[in-house]
Amino acid sequence: MSVKLTILGSSGALPAYGRFPTSQYLNIQNRHMLIDSGEGVQMQLNRYQIPIHKIDHIFISHLHGDHYLGLMGLLFSMHLQRRTTDLHLYSQKGLDDIILLQLKYSKSILNFNIVYHAYDPTEKKLIHEDDVLTVHTIPLNHKLECAGFLFREKTKPRKINKEKLSNGMLLQHIALLKSGGDVYDENNNLLYRNSEYTLPPRTSFAYAFCSDTAWNEKMVDQIREVDLLYHEATFMEEEKDKAMETKHSTAAQAAAMAKQSGVGKLLIGHFSARYRDLEPMLQEAREVFSNTDLALEGTTFELNA
Amino acid sequence: MSVKLTILGSSGALPAYGRFPTSQYLNIQNRHMLIDSGEGVQMQLNRYQIPIHKIDHIFISHLHGDHYLGLMGLLFSMHLQRRTTDLHLYSQKGLDDIILLQLKYSKSILNFNIVYHAYDPTEKKLIHEDDVLTVHTIPLNHKLECAGFLFREKTKPRKINKEKLSNGMLLQHIALLKSGGDVYDENNNLLYRNSEYTLPPRTSFAYAFCSDTAWNEKMVDQIREVDLLYHEATFMEEEKDKAMETKHSTAAQAAAMAKQSGVGKLLIGHFSARYRDLEPMLQEAREVFSNTDLALEGTTFELNA
Fold this sequence. Notes:
homodimer; 9 helices; globular; 7-stranded mixed β-sheet; alpha/beta; Metallo-beta-lactamase, Chain A; 2 domains
């Protein structure tokens, strides 16, 4: 599996009808990441059989409780499961103080290091990079300073065309072909022309997670044409004034953002407790942007290639 | 209903198999109380249809995360539901700092006051009293300083024998009879002899909540003959050494405490994640003290009188 996103929580600040506050699990080429960590995130990871010890990167969008209150329990559980590898935590300043104070009062010393990456939510910044992906912050427009995250796969190596593989081909020849080069022998004679032996890679995947925000035109350029956009939709259009007042979005606004940014698919979530039935909300979004789904608990998006 | 206890979480520190960390809802004559507030407590209150706005008293046994990490989410939800009445919080020193720091970073000011009652967990102390009940701390024996709580109904008024009520009886006569007095007329002639017009009240109810603790002989006198004892049972007897090392109890020890204290009924909980099937644990306890049940999520104890 190349990419898998699992929604762990779909609720706004006040959990209702069995919905949990925001958190999502994202796996890109075996990089196991968590985005936000609302209360109950460890129970939800258990429920969807995602091993918590594999998670190495946690991205927290902002310090409203419904986006981080499950983190501390998760850290304690990682400790109890005898984790020793570093955990990378990306957050605004403040969460470090909150963690340290709670460790102090429980007289706990974790078995593992938390590598704390404090970011400025007002800037578009690269906050993580490894061999296969980059993660940038997306400045949002909320009551409390808040950032979304843009996860983008790097250009993937070309794929060897297995039908063309021959027995005499050396491993270093295959590696060179994958990286895009032609292969020459010691006398500089062409052995394998790249275009004959390889196929283009799968298009690199991009996911934009846009946590709590009011309509935010500034992010259009940054999220343009991503494969998948998660955008909050706390309210329906009939509560547009309430959305504006609380700096949240309506389902129609989330869909308009998806349309304007030309994304592939939209997931909406962070639903207000006033909506038991979410079908009207989905319909409202689909009228603007048809390829929309609800980001309900257990919803997954997978890309196998 | 006079007394109702609902178990909201039965898990030890590492939640597993859908079990939640410790919290319990206790209603004594419409005093709505919460005992511990493990992660997910607000979702569990929703699940069992207990209205969170009714809860006026929260007792926290100690500052290990699995006993309080759901509190902050509950406070935010009370705020979002526009609570304005005081909330009484009983805890060791420290939880106040933890709450204030999280309010600071979320730039939140709650609509209601938290009246913080800091207690010393090493002493048997009265920490709450009203017309119908008292609450005392029970010093426990755990790695982190920890207290249980003893909830005891006050002596209840005598009940009017409805078969003896006559039309001419004045409201103040009935009140006097209920309080245990005889009723005389202005010339000091006996009108109603109490023993003829009233029945004895239901026996006052007592509940001892004994959160995380190793075997703790010191509490026997304090909890003697309570109607209901909740005692943690993190391990089975085969893990007795592990229980001792981590300052927890086995099911057999919890039952021995129930037997030695002569309680009416025992509930065991705080189960380690190593036990998926809890039936052997229940059998272990019942061999020592037969009137034992598992304190599973949704388990209720009711007294209607």
